[in-house]
UniProtKB/TrEMBL annotation, chains A, B:
InterPro entries: 6-PGluconate_DH-like_C_sf (IPR008927), NAD(P)-bd_dom_sf (IPR036291), PDH_C (IPR046825), PDH_N (IPR046826), Preph/Arog_dehydrog (IPR050812), Prephen_DH (IPR003099). The keyword Ribonucleoprotein does not apply. GO terms for molecular function: NAD+ binding; prephenate dehydrogenase (NAD+) activity; prephenate dehydrogenase (NADP+) activity. The lineage of its organism: Bacteria, Pseudomonadati, Planctomycetota, Planctomycetia, Pirellulales. This is Prephenate dehydrogenase. Its EC number is 1.3.1.12. It holds the Pfam family PDH_N. The keyword Membrane does not apply.
Length: 285, 285
């Protein structure tokens, strides 16, 4: 009996890259589809065995070919600058009706690179679950990381409609809420609500000095939390979304310079209005 | 029997302004000195009665004169731009060995204004407990708000040594850790770790637009939390600490502009080094 579209229950899933996100997808799918078999594709099977022992995945392998020959879904959960090449490698190693998806925080560059390979276009639906943490590693993976969180799917014009539907169903199995955007819109919006806020957090962290370190309060701790994230991962995000990030950095610097000028000219009316606008926005969340 | 300096246990305390901070001082002192009588000085005694009913203070009054005639300590917990005038009013209404302290987030302007009044200089030790929340109001006050938190005392050169010692002992009763700084150093450091981070948080909140609102994640939520704070309170802080804030805003804008230029010129090495430096700083907290 063939699964009807509304009952997509993958029998076999491969996760390429068993970290916080890959591990959490594995745990979430194993929870919602108890019969599923999840194999982790890792760089070192000996080290990866710990993720079998701790119940993140059912098995691990170092081989894309071995893992992807007979799976329904492959999730690429590697750094954004490596996703496109992995998608293409998996597309060549997997069966014709395999769904390939990813978890990358940038989408335009990935979708564009994949578009050069028809085999991959026929199997790939780019995804970005808006969930994560400054923590890294599958030891922090949880089955509920995506519950109630937005998962953005960014199909291209070439993405088959039934494949997109399967991707939506797959990601719903993790508890996510599906939002569909163009890769370009995704990257523009994420620059403004994630990538540039991250850089602002790092910039704020760098304002501290030895003498002021004892004086930080809970506000500073909140603002700078994400600055503890993996620098290499954030560099890759910046590289992949350069134009949109540069534009939003310009907006942010302009905003801060505007405030500085109000401070200098004692334009308290403008400053108060600006603080109120920011509060109204924040209160709406 | 006169209290020895190491056993300062106030019998009567007045709190001018029963909000989050004033209410938390009241609750903390009542917990550590069960025999104490705490009176709240409020704008409207009928409305203030709720703070008696909910156990924040023992009594309320609208009159500074009535409250301060026979108390050991008066805590000024009003917006920073009103602290100095309240200190002077309380100094005139209180007995000669009364300690007056405050909770304001800025210190230089307050200490300078108070220095014009010898009666107030003899009684006032400026304080800033580094604790708080984006929440306001005594309904959120807790006895443990200051436990383990830094309380900065900023005496002037005129502050009597025994008065400073009494202030240290009073603030220790709240569970705070005492740090002593000059008013100027306090304001410079706080601009870099609190005031400008707050403005950065508001600026980040304002990057969001209607289309991107659905895409915010936990990083954005953390970074922008303090932007929900009271705009009038933060305007007053900006007014009181204008020079230091303007200087730190210039540093922050310069840092963001530097990152933008690295993005533009693809200087990934500099960007990665900068991200690593920020992570090292954040990880040390």
């Amino acid at each position: 009996m063939k699964d009807s579209p509304s009952e997509f229950r993958p029998a076999r899933v491969a996760i390429l890259g068993v970290g916080l996100l890959g591990g959490s997808v594995a745990r979430a799918i194993r929870q919602s589809v108890p019969s599923v078999h999840v194999v982790g594709i890792v760089r070192c099977a000996d080290k990866g065995q710990q993720w079998v022992d701790s119940g993140v995945v059912d098995a691990v392998t170092e081989s894309i070919e071995q893992a992807c020959g007979n799976v329904d879904v492959v999730v690429i959960a590697t750094p954004v600058d490596t996703v496109a090449e992995k998608v293409i490698a998996v597309a060549k190693a997997s069966n014709p009706d395999c769904l390939i998806t990813d978890v990358g925080s940038t989408k335009r560059t990935i979708v564009k690179a994949v578009s050069q390979c028809p085999e991959a276009v026929a199997k790939f639906v780019a995804a970005h679950p808006i969930a994560g943490s400054e923590k890294t590693g599958a030891e922090h993976a949880t089955a509920d990381l995506f519950v109630g969180k937005v998962v953005v799917l960014t199909p291209s014009e070439q993405t088959p409609a039934d494949l997109l539907e399967r991707a939506e169903q797959f990601w719903r199995l993790t508890g996510g809420r599906i939002v569909t955007l163009s890769p370009q819109d995704h990257d523009t919006h994420l620059a403004s609500v994630s990538h540039v806020p991250h850089l602002a957090s790092s910039a704020v962290a760098k304002l501290v000095c030895e003498q002021s370190a004892d004086l930080v309060g809970s506000g500073w701790t909140d603002i700078t939390r994400v600055a503890a994230g993996d620098p290499a991962m954030w560099l890759a995000i910046c590289q992949e979304n350069r134009t949109a990030i540069e534009e939003q950095l310009r907006r942010l610097a302009g905003s801060i310079e505007e405030v500085r000028q109000w401070m200098h000219s004692r334009d308290d009316e403008s400053l108060l209005r600006w603080l109120k606008e920011a509060k109204t926005i924040r209160d709406s969340f």
